């Protein structure tokens, strides 16, 4: 690997060999920031002594994380106080005034009015508040794009990617909520330009991935996007498994019994299956490149497993970002990059130079996240276990780029997605149901608005899955311990969220 | 349209403008033909006086239809006789001997042995016999390819198609069993070269069709198959609706309330949606051609609606094959072709010459089927209503090219396919359940054997759908009134059927 090159040239003239290692510069939020009164853990977003960590990006990411999570985390204390007031005079008006002031929205009046007859229906109010908070968050995300890169930065990323020899990056992490931020935070990649579909245990669906590959390649042939088909670039598939360095035996990947070796091997096997599927289904040397990445969910540090000369990812060989971060602290930017390049070359000597460059870029990007966790979470998250705020079921959820916000179940039907759903409901049984709070489920299907009938079909699918979900968890649903918000979104026109219903409606409240 | 050309030149030198109007020559069956002792309705397979009807093809199609349907139709009379013998001495051995001799397979011994304790379990035996008959039929089909065209004929078809301006034909008929023979019999097209997916009311899925188009186009770019992407040919999507000329108000399409105009308009709308989806999703002039076809399920005569100059199919404008057949009877082949060309030009003057040629080819092909129905079924089927022998659920069923043999429910999950399943179960309630016989369901998913894990996933899907099917019709399943045969097939390697289980197994019989 050549040393001494300026991979992070900040001048506007992009050098052909310029890397992408520098975390993205984000444009400032354009909307009015929502109040975030109790912003916690604001212990200095800058880590002294690491040349590759730009404080600006970390500040911006922290603002987003704090704003969104604090909005969700206000709900429980608020309802606890509300519960104490439920038998007071003027309860309804008082509650609404409090809700407006503290949460930013009103509560369903009928539930408040009926509190004197039966106990205040806290389950209903909890689901209502989670859904209203989610709605405001998603609206804000699509309207103001708080995490979007500058257009110039997006171009820079595409150019860097192609210099590394790739035209598309498709990432399949585990659906565990502790990986929900893997694209924009952990790897500092532009979420709009990198594909993400999460599956329990990173066991992504080979047939679905095959279809995405076919779509991508046709677009290169027909439309020259993201580049023309004659460019010698490849489709890169990344699988992200995870583990817990602090409590490896209990806080690792549930789908693989918290066994890191099993999780890594399973992700490697699935990657190979996908590659083999393409090689066997298409002639003329069709193939893809593979990359295996491990995430320590306690610290957000990563292990990158560069493929060998045959393109095979090896669970036993990897470069660890945290050790590299520590060894390069205090060095100048050039020296850090040189050192990273050397370490990658030492482990990945046989792999393509472009792949090595990409791996180095991921490691350097991750430095910013290591600094972020050290600065804002004492180097190790307080919630190293599950702490998701809602389940995200369906297709879409581009707005969810935050750790432990959402447990994903990407699916088209409950029939196929039942195993991932069961894991999610189990997680929320521990988090919520055991305390008597419901599992809040956002059911959502994105559609391509330019396809006739696509919106209607997305709506029908959302309602069908809602029905099937009730059918799978009938006791929870009957007891008000499973609530669903139904939404669709035109992803082709980058629309905002359209809420089409919720399980709270039969009480007479329309959402 | 040029007149006087020899569209049916039988010489081996294919002229560039040679049509495909001549129904396919099939190679003779290579296996031992199964006994078909009571071959009915053999009233002369040749119709005097029509120049475009080759007796050879009709003889072969009749042999296949008679052999398969008679095998299914032997089951009920056989079981009726068996029932009468159930209390006789040596019943088991006698029954097995009869079954071997008359049906070609044995019965589950335990059911026979237990007949003295409880009544002979006719429901179980009925499902067993249907499944064994289906298995033998499917095996025979894939081993001996009784309907396959000669390789030279297949090339001729592809060449003709491309001369008409198309590289792929994708047909979506209604899933009604009375259309199950539409490809190979009604339209006399090679079933292996033409795509078919059936949906209730011909309401095919736009997103799935879009994926097939993408796959086809990528294959043209990457592999030059079926032709290279620079050839100015198009993807042709055909929707086939249906009606009953004899009992239009009751024996039309159930999904459209037996209203022919509604059925035709719905198929036209779905075609347009698909075309618009492609035009809006892909740039650079991407589009497809559309063709609307109506089938009279009483007579197998067709109406072809040629598109207008803008490519729009019009439900109100069509050419009817039966009237043309009658008007051209007694004429020489050249004169018939000329006449057909004129009639098509009169209705479809504005459409592309290639489309007109294709429409004329379909009409001429259908003449053979009109002759077939007249010769073998008195011009109008005895079973103008439903008379399916089993339900085919899943993906595959290339072997089913016979009228009223199978009600199709093409689906990936019961959750999505429930409406088509409900229609099927309703049909079989009338045919079987009301008399106490079960609904026999063949559950089947074809897979691409070259994709790693595809077989295992197909097997898992088959078992999952079987479970979901029981969940949807629990009472029928508990009463032994719904039985399923589970099978998968490697369609990429053109494999035979692999039976992986059946609902008859819990009784102790392994299938």
Automatic annotation (TrEMBL), chains A, B:
Coiled coil: none annotated. Its main location: other. Residues 1-13 have a biased composition (Basic residues). Residues 387-503 form the Carboxysome Shell Carbonic Anhydrase C-terminal domain. GO terms for biological process: carbon fixation. Its cofactor is Zn(2+). It holds the Pfam family CsoSCA_C. Residues 157-386 form the Carboxysome Shell Carbonic Anhydrase catalytic domain. Its EC number is 4.2.1.1. Keywords: Bacterial microcompartment, Carbon dioxide fixation, Carboxysome, Lyase, Metal-binding, Zinc. Residues 1-40 are annotated as: Disordered. It catalyses: hydrogencarbonate + H(+) = CO2 + H2O. Residues 24-40 have a biased composition (Basic and acidic residues). The keyword Zinc applies. GO terms for cellular component: carboxysome. It is found in: Carboxysome. Belongs to the beta-class carbonic anhydrase family. CsoSCA subfamily. This is Carboxysome shell carbonic anhydrase.
């Amino acid at each position: 690997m050549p040393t001494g090159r300026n991979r992070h040239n900040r001048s506007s003239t992009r050098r052909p060999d310029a890397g992408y290692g520098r975390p993205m510069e984000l444009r400032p939020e354009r909307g009015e920031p929502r109040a975030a009164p109790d912003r916690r853990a604001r212990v200095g977003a800058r880590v002294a002594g690491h040349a590759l960590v730009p404080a600006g990006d970390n500040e911006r990411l922290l603002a987003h994380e704090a704003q969104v999570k604090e909005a969700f985390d206000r709900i429980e204390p608020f309802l606890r106080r509300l519960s104490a007031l439920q038998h007071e005079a003027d309860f309804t008006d008082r509650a609404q005034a409090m809700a407006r002031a503290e949460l930013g929205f009103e509560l369903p009046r009928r539930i408040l009015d009926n509190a004197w007859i039966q106990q205040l229906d806290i389950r209903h109010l909890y689901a209502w508040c989670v859904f209203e908070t989610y709605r405001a968050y998603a609206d804000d995300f699509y309207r103001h794009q708080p995490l979007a890169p500058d257009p110039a930065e997006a171009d820079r990323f595409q150019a860097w990617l192609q210099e590394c020899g790739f035209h598309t990056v498709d990432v399949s992490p585990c659906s565990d909520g502790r990986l929900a931020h893997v694209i924009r935070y952990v790897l500092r990649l532009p979420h709009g330009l990198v594909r993400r579909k999460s599956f329990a245990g990173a066991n992504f669906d080979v047939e679905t991935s095959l279809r995405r590959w076919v779509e991508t390649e046709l677009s290169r042939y027909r439309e020259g996007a993201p580049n023309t088909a004659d460019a010698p670039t490849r489709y890169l598939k990344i699988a992200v498994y995870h583990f817990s360095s602090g409590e490896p035996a209990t806080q690792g990947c549930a789908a693989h019994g918290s066994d890191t070796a099993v999780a890594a091997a399973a992700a490697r096997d699935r990657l190979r299956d996908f590659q083999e599927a393409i090689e066997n289904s298409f002639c003329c040397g069709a193939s893809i490149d593979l990359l295996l990445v491990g995430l320590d969910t306690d610290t957000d540090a990563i292990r990158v497993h560069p493929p060998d000369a045959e393109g095979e990812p090896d669970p036993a060989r990897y470069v660890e970002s945290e050790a590299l971060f520590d060894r390069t602290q205090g060095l100048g930017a050039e020296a850090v990059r040189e050192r990273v390049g050397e370490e990658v070359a030492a482990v990945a000597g046989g792999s393509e130079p472009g792949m090595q460059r990409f791996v180095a870029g991921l490691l350097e990007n991750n430095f910013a996240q290591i600094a972020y966790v050290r600065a804002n979470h004492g180097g190790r998250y307080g919630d190293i276990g599950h702490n998701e705020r809602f389940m995200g079921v369906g297709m879409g959820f581009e707005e969810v780029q935050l750790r432990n916000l959402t447990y994903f179940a990407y699916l088209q039907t409950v029939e196929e997605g039942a195993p991932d759903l069961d894991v999610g409901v189990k997680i929320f049984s521990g988090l919520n149901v055991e305390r008597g709070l419901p599992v809040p489920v956002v059911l959502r299907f994105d559609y391509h608005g330019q396809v006739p009938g696509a919106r209607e079909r997305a709506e029908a699918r959302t309602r069908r899955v809602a029905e099937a979900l009730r059918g799978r968890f009938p006791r929870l649903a009957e007891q008000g311990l499973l609530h669903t918000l139904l939404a669709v979104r035109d992803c082709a026109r980058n629309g905002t969220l359209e809420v089409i219903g919720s399980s709270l409606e039969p009480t007479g409240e329309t959402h």
